User: Fold these one by one.
Assistant:
Number 1:
Amino acid sequence: MMPSQKLVFLPDPDIARSCYVSDNAQYKQMYQKSIENPSEFWGEIADNFYWKRPIDFDNFNRFNFDFRKGPIFTKWLDGATTNISYNLLDRNIRNGNGKKIAFFWEGNDPRNSKHITYAELLSEVCRFANVLKSRNVQKGDRVAIYMPMILEAVITMLACTRIGAVHSLVFAGFSADSFAERITDCQARVMVTADATWRGQKLIKLKNICDESMDICQKKGHTVDTCIVVAHMQRSELPTGVSRVQYTAPMLNCRDFWWHEIVPGASANCPPEWMQAEDPLFLLYTSGSTGKPKGVLHTTGGYLLYAATTFKFVFDYKPGDIYWCTADIGWITGHTYVVYGPLANAATSVIYEGTPFYPTNSRYWEIVEKYKVNQFYTAPTAIRTLMKFGEDIVKKNNLTSLRILGSVGEPINPEAWLWYYKNIGREKCSIVDTYWQTETGGHIITPLPGVTAMKPGAASSPFFGVQPILLDDNGKEIEGEGEGYLVFSRPWPGIMRTLFNNHDRYEETYFKKFPGYYFSGDGARRDSDGYLWVTGRVDDMLNVSGHLMSTAEVESVLTEHSSVTEAAVVAKPHPIKGECLYCFITIAENAVFNDQLQTELKQLVRERIGPFAQPDVIHNAPGLPKTRSGKIMRRILRKIAQDDHDIGDISTLADSGIVDVLFKTKPNTQR
Ligand code: PRX
């Protein structure tokens, strides 16, 4: 089904009545203020937080997005000092929320659950911060985190912020190679992990992966001197059908320490390190089109304001609500909308360790019912997977607590949107299709609940302080209806500040293509009502189940195999994953293309990048469509992958005959 700009759903009046922003006029007035008078708009919000050294309103926001005028930079609240953990914990406790539950933790197995209050969280954070200090972690040092969805992951992140250390989480589905690459890039000396975690009935031996990556780091000349390990497996119930586990995490003397042996004895008092608003808060690696991951750097003051404000308005979070975001903590959604945004609002959230399919395919809905979740935030790929099980399975649980439903990570197709709206939202909930990126820190284009008339598949309108612009191929701004490159001419507080240790690449990637603008890498369409529809990446990136990766990174893995001489990877639409990887390979003269080679290549990608990057199709290509200067024409490969014979102009190809050959050699299963 193609998105229709005619299909519109009005917010439910009962829900709209109680929302922070109650109508479009109020949204417009607030939006205008955020654009015309950012220091007043954000300054009023900043007043809710604690600043050790107060904000200098003459120095509220400075930036340069035009490299022709000098280096690119963005600064918000420069000169003010604060501490994020202080704002998320101590401040909330002072405001009377000490006994309030910060997180309900739900384990992979329904028999495992616990909760933690704001006061308890502060004590644990301080304890762990003191442990980090005892391992000589200082302000500005990077700490690598490779953890499952457990409370210690949050505690570790906040403990870093307590002492001014910079956390760098790596999604615990990445391979040892990928993890090692990220650790060496940011030179982290300290690592925090868990022995293992259950995903359904599958045990993921995290410590083994960490050991492997520490070995790789060592070979590259970088030493991790401390690895702290949560004994999580030991406290987890065995999943149904598993009678026992034969795994003991290997521990190396003097380098590896069990969390439970060193943390409980540490002092629960740790004064916060006062940080400059523009001091680094965290690094998060995201795929880059050259194949080498980029260490996106977010700073303290602006990120705090932006995470807090987007969370409050987009999810319309009210005291007493129970909020649940299913994203893994290792992605930006997990950072901003599992940890920082909710805690900045003294929210109570659910954190869930497992999968939507264990012990049954209605686990998500059981959790919604169990905790009476009011806001539920997930990814289109999860919705599409759950749709497969039909509507009856959803009806078994009481979902009437739900008020707001969120979607993130990729464009949501109208079928999935409508299913979500009807079956999960009972045609009452507002759906917020939040468009944003690791780089943007928080939502930038999104409907507001209770306000925006919803169009399935449209990210809709800019959030406060955000000014989206569409450009044509010549860099000219498109007014009114039209489709083009999605760019932004001014910063909002949560935008990334640089790429770790690589400001040149930051300027090159985001600011060179269109001077004067931050370029998102996405295309978008503006309809006749002014709604924005994000159409997807316009660069060499793929989005598989909401995981962004570059074609180059997969290609370089494929060509590592001795049988492969050349590889070109493109995205192919996939009914569940959104997109999947379609790989064209040319093989060496003496090599044989058979099942074994395909299995080996898939395995290699799993090992080098992670299981989520496994290719769906490997096409034995006798040649690749190239221009005379040797550039691979991916546009043509995408058409071939989709079996679309409407190829367009191929006059620039060095050998136009290759197109026919590639259609003829397509693997049978994919025709
Ligand atoms: O292409 C856009 C897509 O995901 C990209 C960002 O990926 P990442 O940095 O991993 O962050 C994902 C979580 C914020 C974007 O460049 N994307 C994300 N959300 C949407 C989306 N595309 C369309 N609609 C969305 N709601």
Note: The chain is about 30% helix and 20% strand.
Number 2:
Amino acid sequence: MCGIVAYIGKKEAFPIVVKGLKRLEYRGYDSAGVALLHGDQLNVYKKAGKVSVMEEFALGQDVAGHAGIGHTRWATHGEPSDVNAHPHTSMDGKIALIHNGIIENYDVLKRELQNQGYIFKSETDTEVIVHLVDYISKKEHVWFGEALRLALSQVHGAYAIVAISKEYPNRLVAARKSSPLVVGIGAEGDFYLASDATPIVEYTKKVVYLDDEEIAVIDLEEGLKLYNIADQERTPFFQQLEMELEALEKGGYEHFMLKEIHEQPRSIHDCFRGRLNAEEAWVNLGGLRDYEQKMITANRLIIVACGTSWHAGLVGEYLIEDLARINVEVEYASEFRYRNPILNENDVVIAISQSGETADTLAALELAKSKGATILGICNVVGSSISRLTDGGSYTHAGPEIGVASTKAFTAQVTVLTLMALSLAHKKGTISETHFRTLLAELEAIPEKVKQVLETDALIEQIAAEYKDASNALYLGRGSSFPVALEGALKLKEISYIHAEGYPAAEMKHGPIALIDENMPIFVIATQGNSYEKVVSNIQEVKARKGKVIAVVTEGDIQVREMADHVIEIPETNEFLVPLLATIPFQLLSYHIAVMRGCNVDQPRNLAKSVTVE
Ligand code: M6R
């Protein structure tokens, strides 16, 4: 969480840093701040609230300067307030520092520094770092970059840090451990730093992703140099960004979430483009090819993920077990890592993560790696920590997802998992050639069918208007539609703040049925397939208790239409692919309800896009 941006070069830093912070605001949005070096002045402006509040506060004051650092915060230690906002400064006002992550031993360090006479203004863990850097720099008579390197050996936890000092106006120092940081190399001898590439891409596509425990020293004369914590110089690995600027704009939509929902025909297509050919009957996930035999013979595949990515993992479990007959377990990364799981070199652990930075997912992978398991990743963000840690994997190619509520990333994850299941099944011989070809052709047709589902938007908006004031909602599904129900409930609660739960439809009578009354909307996935008749019975149970049923059905359905209060039709497809279509109406529904309730759709309260704290 928290977004970091910095600039040093010949241009004015303030507009670049503020624009970058706005692009990163999805990472955290409770307070923001900048520090700017102007001559012998270090000007710091910080405010609780959105970046625009801080921007307004700073404009009209001295915002000049060719070096600047900026931060948008998601509070961990200390409430969102002006004083807790970053940057934090040394007591003599010479050094300013921003931080994303958590310093676990901040309390001990704070007490030691207080004993040395340091006075703390904020309740943050970050302030400890800036005072420690100042203390070491004075005690050891070293410049602030060297002091930061020495300080880091005393710090436990996760960090992405950028610091400037008015004693070194041509320098900027950065360090990372478990929190991402990218350096952009501008064409005019200037440098950009950010938590991800989105603030950088409009200026340069040449970047270096910092590795764990790496320190970047940027000097306007000497350029970029990298060191490890032991002060050994490292060779930077330059990469070209593939991201396009338009992908970061709303493109005429009112919200990023709506844009991303509507991008799904393209993002699903981009995800399987070049990876399958129905006519020639092949599927090929390049980044996994070397590990497929290992996956086929593994004890089990363990999928680790959080939130929406965990739901995608559950769909993957249905697909891989059914088609490829390989044992799959899906685990919450946060639980898995703390329960001493039994793992060895015969296990394959697959992390699913849109951001590729989720702290718990990353830690689960590190644990699996330490136990000798093969580790693979399904990530959206290219160059992210998970994609760099894993032995192999597949990118989802959904393009930047800015809305905090995950939409197109989910369908892209499910698409990769479908390709994976098909590829494994084909190699293992657990799928007939005809079935294989049918599924490939059906998958190729999915983007067109998603377009058709998006055309039901007006109907979904009407349904949203009817249920926008509900205080509770239930989502029901069976088989691979059960994770779709979970995902539907998560979408509703995270952006509209209506309490919602997803349940396997048959489980309803073991408890949740007690909640049903005439005010309770129940969203049901009742598409054609093996469990259709069972779901129809579940709908009858709801109706017998006067619950309101909104059913997602297969085009042309008559039986459910007669029972339900509303039906939303999706085109017919193979049962294995239903999650890719059935999830779309729930995304639109949550979106419209949230808008009608006046909620901040793209930046819901208390959330952040990239959860880099445990
Ligand atoms: O970046 P990741 O996929 O690892 O993120 C996992 C969850 O934090 C994320 O899916 C979260 O649940 C979203 N807000 C859901 O919309």
Note: The mean pLDDT is 94.
Number 3:
Amino acid sequence: MSRILSGMRPTGPLHLGHLLGALRNWVELQRTSECYFMVADLHALMGEYEKPGALRDNSINMVIDWIACGIDPDKSAIFIQSDLPEHSELAVLLGMLTPLGWLERNPTYKEQLREIEGRDLTTYGFFGYPVLQAADILLYRADKVPVGEDQLAHLELIRELVRRFNFLYGSDNSDALVEPQPNLTPQARILGVDRRKMSKSYGNAINLSDDEETVRKKIGSMITDPERARLTDPGHPDACNVFSYYGIFAKDRQPEVRSWCEGARKGCTDCKKELAGSVVEALRPIRERRSDLMKRISAEPGYLDEILRRGAEKARDTASETLRRVRRAMGLTRKTAVAAGGRR
Ligand code: TRP
């Protein structure tokens, strides 16, 4: 059975982009693979270190979003990165052999430095982002990593790092690290209600935790075909964000929508009302699972902690064994167990 690790940074409520771009795929993978899903709070800290106040709440809320979407804590290990010091330790060890040039060439690093304003990201931690990500993946000897396209460069760097490790420490230690393959998530591109990329920071997202009312309101505010000023003007569905939402949430209705739009037989307001109904319907299982989960949590306040404790325990079984092998490869093991206090 293949082993999967993936993670997300807890930076705020998850939205439809996360569902379509990652979570739907994660839920599917649970049926065929041994899965580890990690809350990448250390990675979030790289960007939010100046104001870490919301980190813990964001982490917990993200786990709630995951479970609501169908991540099953009985099947998959759900854990928080910083609960396992193994991640930090392996990152330090891998840092020893990571050439600076590889990190300097990392396209996401260059892009974020250029684009993110109002935060100082010229830090050692942020520069080393892919090294910590390498530790995340390699600790579990995961053979597949579901990621979006934006993470492919990181995966490639991580694969090179494994080859470098194996070159340096030889065939005796080839059981320590496994080269991971990216599992590219088929991207159903979904734009925000204002037609820009869906993102919390643009305030244009439909969140997975939004109630019915809020979803309807947000869809009602969507920008439609700008060339259709009056009801009697024929619309251009292929240029309309609302039409593309139909493609995602009610594909079978697209021909009908196209004909009423191009034939100027229905106005955008009504068209959006009907879309809202389909989206609300599509998200119903998520809302129901969330409400069950919240009831469970209020009856049993330690419920989530217990899930995370179990997840961390399962993760640690694998991670500590990998770290043991890496320490051995890098000369950090004493000859006898007794001399090492029996621990390693
Ligand atoms: N870098 C990922 C992101 O920004 C989050 C992440 C951290 C991750 N560690 C990971 C993803 C390991 C996959 C595997 O979205």
Note: Residues 104 and 249 are 41 Å apart (CA to CA).
Number 4:
Amino acid sequence: MNRILLAEDEERIASFIEKGLRAEGFRCETVADGAAAVELARTGEFDLMVLDIGLPGMDGFTVLRRLRSERVDLPIIILTARDAVEDTVAGLSGGADDYMRKPFAFDELMARIRLRLASAASVESVVLRVADLALDLRTRRATVDGRTVELTTREFALLETFLRHPDEVLTRQQLLSRVWEFDFDPGSNVVDVYVRYLRTKLGADRFETVRGAGYRLRSAPH
Ligand code: CA
């Protein structure tokens, strides 16, 4: 089920949107100020945010800039009561995916939400991300902090396995079976050798050695 985060301080509008979303089968959580919007958007538990610009404390533009500077790539649709075209343009260049001008028809908002969710889903299926590390499954290229890194076939398969299990300890045996398709331990250090290659190419710190167990891809610096 899709979870929508709604940041809107006007109760009447918030409840109108909430009711509509629930009727369409979405789950919806509403916050009424910018700081709470940032906090919840960071949790990664939402699929999309509808963000009002005029919020108390921190306005919607600030919320948007803060999230994008933290690389939170949650799709965001801005709601604005302001007529000024510059505001809308500023919103889109600040990293918003779309915008709606108030007042609006719920059906139009719903159509935009569905469109954004569909395009987010198709992007997600080809790019795996953990922190500043991304792997495009089509081009088989990794990027670290915007820098492109070429990988060999095995390095690619090993990195894909790590990215699908961030923060989990993967044993040498699990890696051997998933990446090399060995269901026995051939008694070689091939896993350690390839983890070393990934460390050299992508940064040593992110691949943690867990003594006596295996390796873990860290999703955050320690
Ligand atoms: Ca408002």
Note: The mean pLDDT is 89.
